[in-house]
Amino acid sequence: MPEILDVDGSPLAPESLRMLEYLRTRSQEMSAVAIREKIRKAAEELESTLESVTAAQARLHPLAGKWSIAEVVDHIAQTQIRGTEELRHLLAGRRPPHPPVYEALRSGAGQWAPWNLLVEDLHAANRAMVGVLDGAADPISSDAPTVRTVMVALRKIEEARTEPQLWFSELNWKEYALLQRLHLLDHRTQVKKLHAPITGQ
What we know:
- It is a single chain.
- The chain is mainly alpha-helical.
- It has one domain (14-199): Four Helix Bundle (Hemerythrin (Met), subunit A) (Up-down Bundle), CATH 1.20.120.450.
- The chain is 53% helix and 11% strand.
- It has helices spanning 14-29, 32-50, 55-58, 69-91, 115-132, 173-199; strands at residues 147-158, 161-171.
- The chain has a two-stranded antiparallel sheet.
- Strand 1 (147-158) and strand 2 (161-171) form a beta hairpin.
- The protein is globular, with a radius of gyration of 17 Å.
- The protein starts with 13 loop residues before the first helix and ends with a helix.
């Protein structure tokens, strides 16, 4: 297997290699049901975090140069919709025909759509992803289709600084589903960090 490099041609950082190893190892250890429930729990944790966010707070930009909470929610919903479609293809034994789901995918609705609608769209997208995994079979054959996936990991560049590293990987459906769980958990943490300075906590 050729060495995986980031989009700039640099070797993967230790943080990126650990993410890949986690996906490969855990996808082999976990059943389809366990993976589905992990995604369900991560989605519920994110949705619970949003319950304390008001419509006014969701539009604020407490951290300079960062998304608002509304933009984060729009991003997750749009990503979940695309991710569910790709999982549907993989589970049907097909390679997804579309371009990869890029890391900053948004619709623009985070800037204007009513907050309650954004949250409802996220709930619907999460339910769709969990639903598509109902009945998924455990065995993955050596010739099972994969999906070209944009991967992102934060690598340490100085003692207190990190930067994202981006690269492409080919993932089977279990690896890809576990990546969606990590995505939900990462943005749950992001929402908490954005909400804290707004509420003074």
